């Protein structure tokens, strides 16, 4: 799959604590994040990625994340998740990242329209639990309508199995 670029909430924020707690209670070990873009080739220089992102953030507002709803789905990464609003700042970062780091012929306007920012709480690989029981454990007041700005960027090597994913770059973007 390559690298995936993730946006994480600020480490010490209440929303980070709530999301981390829920994800761990579901038996998962990934960091709470909004995927900005995936399928970045592993041949892409990590230093070039960081430099490009630093330049981007020097000239653009920090991404705003607004959690809207709790949802379930059938896709691997969308078993139980919270959907986020497509804020201009989040879409701008995603579009920049797609154009800069994922060189393919995909129609960028179509991709941008289909971009679906969300935060997964559990992936479909966990088969030994009941979704309804898990959902009933969630205190929605700690998630729905919560927001954050900035946070951390993580670049994760997602080319292997989930248990082999490795963070190769992490830095704060809060101002």
UniProtKB/TrEMBL annotation:
Record-given protein name: 2',3'-cyclic-nucleotide 3'-phosphodiesterase
Molecular function (Gene Ontology), one example: 2',3'-cyclic-nucleotide 3'-phosphodiesterase activity
Gene3D superfamilies recorded: Cyclic phosphodiesterase (3.90.1140.10)
SUPFAM superfamilies: LigT-like
Superkingdom: Eukaryota
Record lineage: Eukaryota, Metazoa, Spiralia, Gnathifera, Rotifera
Single biological process term from Gene Ontology: cyclic nucleotide metabolic process
Pfam families: CPDase
């Amino acid at each position: 799959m390559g690298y995936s670029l993730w946006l994480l909430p600020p480490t010490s924020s209440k929303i980070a604590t709530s999301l981390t707690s829920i994800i761990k209670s579901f038996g998962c070990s990934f960091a709470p994040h909004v995927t900005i873009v995936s399928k970045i080739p592993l041949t892409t220089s990590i230093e070039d990625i960081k430099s490009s992102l630093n330049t981007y953030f020097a000239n653009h507002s920090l991404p705003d994340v607004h959690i809207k709803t709790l949802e379930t789905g059938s896709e691997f990464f969308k078993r139980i998740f919270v959907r986020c609003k497509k804020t201009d700042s989040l879409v701008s970062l995603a579009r920049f990242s797609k154009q800069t780091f994922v060189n393919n012929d995909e129609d960028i306007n179509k991709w941008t329209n289909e971009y679906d920012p969300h935060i997964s709480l559990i992936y479909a690989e966990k088969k030994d639990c009941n979704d309804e029981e898990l959902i009933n454990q969630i205190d929605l007041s700690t998630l729905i309508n919560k927001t954050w700005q900035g946070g951390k960027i993580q670049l994760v090597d997602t080319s292997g199995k989930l248990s082999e994913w490795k963070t190769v770059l992490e830095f704060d973007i809060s101002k």
